[in-house]
Design goal:
single chain, 63% helix, elongated
Length: 101
């Protein structure tokens, strides 16, 4: 899969995983992995980018004596999912064209 396309899809998948509930890195990977391959080295830069874009926020919670970073989707993140879904029909039209339908 094209790296730029995959990156965009992964960002939406991360936001969608957080739409259900706040979560931390390892759990996000577990939630997304059945649908698309993602590693820690891919996830954390995505989380940083989404935080910078104000699509998610970050807070820490103590877990087993250590601080664990939790990520929470913001309104901007929810709007980003909606925008992606609105554009999906155009993507499907391009797919149909390429397939020759």
């Amino acid at each position: 899969m094209d790296i730029q396309l995959k990156r965009g899809l992964l960002e939406i998948c991360v936001l969608k995983a957080l739409e259900k509930s706040d979560s931390y890195g390892y759990q996000i990977i577990k939630d997304i992995s059945p649908y698309i391959e993602i590693s820690e080295s891919t996830l954390y830069p995505i989380l940083k980018r989404l935080e910078g874009a104000e699509a998610l926020s970050v807070y820490s919670v103590e877990h087993n004596g250590r601080l664990r970073k939790y990520y929470s989707i913001t309104e901007k993140g929810k709007k980003r999912i909606k925008a992606f879904l609105a554009e999906w029909q155009e993507i499907m039209n391009v797919y149909k064209f390429i397939e020759g339908e």
